[in-house]
């Protein structure tokens, strides 16, 4: 802090312990920048925090009305660089505060330091159709924030930064415990908050991409919930395993979580994204073996209810493959697979049977799944059944399918591996960057309030 650094692109690793050191390759006038001088200083805090925690960035000791560029970059676990940048002009005192000074251009505009995260895109020349996903939640992703003189929009790695600082962004708070689950045929990862418990529990189901996705569960545990990230669409031997996975598998997973000694057995909820929403709604409406306390469903559908096995759902979907479309870039659009919404009640989850609070979140520009249309039908079905008082619906304009944890970089399209065939395609998710970022931040805040109300408070209905 307060010294000149070569750009982080030039180095092989991101090591936060180097953030207050002179990095290799510094020479000439760079060495003249001393922290005791009245030199340019960049301050970011907190330097270590959870991914859903806002940070603040300020640049001091600039010239009055000096144009600068704030640039952020991190290296993913797949060794791809992602970046964002904003153009600023210092005030009369030579200061820029990113939450007070407006970004006039760049990858985002306005007074929002978190734009340095949510507007990130792969750097020019990267592999195509990338999506940022953290796989190892026991390590942070490390963000370098640099100050450059003038308003620049490219060639950052060829330029010397005036100053640089480093921040760590974590999904796991200190003390959160990660436990591999291999029990009763169930596979997943359990995250437990620090302390003796018992904690409210959340069974966490991701979507049709399959595999074990842990980062949302890790963040939920950081907020006080025992969260089980469930693997149910397996990336290896998918077709064989999916053929035998159905209601019993999800009931077994729910009961493993419920019966854990650190989990409050009467306060367990379900959380589903995309295809996981179909599973969550079917479990809540049809299962007599479990009694979830509440449901959170994001970007999903009540069509193609999960019954005996997942293979039956996939077979039903394949009958509609002629409805698939592509955009002008040959990106796959799935939303027409289940449009129009069926009128046959046997083709839908009977959401009128749901007996616990449901938070339903949809993006109005979802190009992957007809979540907005499904939300309307769910609401109508629940009104007809007399249980619509249990429904809270959040609908966000300009928002796509991948409504993730706050400040996650928006992905409009990305590579995708089909769960049953393992064929690689590029899928259009939808959304525009700024409204999508707002939806992620606002919905997460409301999700946490919803979970607190229905899982931490014992009498809410």
Automatic annotation (TrEMBL):
Residues 1-24 are annotated as: Disordered. InterPro entries: AB_hydrolase_fold, Acyl-CoA_thioEstase_long-chain, BAAT_C, Thio_Ohase/aa_AcTrfase, Thio_Ohase/BAAT_N. It comes from the Eukaryota. The active site is at 274 (charge relay system), 366 (charge relay system), 401 (charge relay system). Residues 248-456 form the BAAT/Acyl-CoA thioester hydrolase C-terminal domain. SUPFAM superfamilies: alpha/beta-Hydrolases. One of its GO terms (molecular function) is fatty acyl-CoA hydrolase activity. Pfam families: BAAT_C, Bile_Hydr_Trans. Residues 9-20 have a biased composition (Basic and acidic residues). Residues 52-183 form the Acyl-CoA thioester hydrolase/bile acid-CoA amino acid N-acetyltransferase domain. One of its GO terms (biological process) is acyl-CoA metabolic process. Belongs to the C/M/P thioester hydrolase family. PANTHER family: ACYL-COA THIOESTERASE 17-RELATED, ACYL-COENZYME A THIOESTERASE-RELATED. This is Peroxisomal succinyl-coenzyme A thioesterase-like. It comes from Acipenser oxyrinchus oxyrinchus. The gene is Acot4.
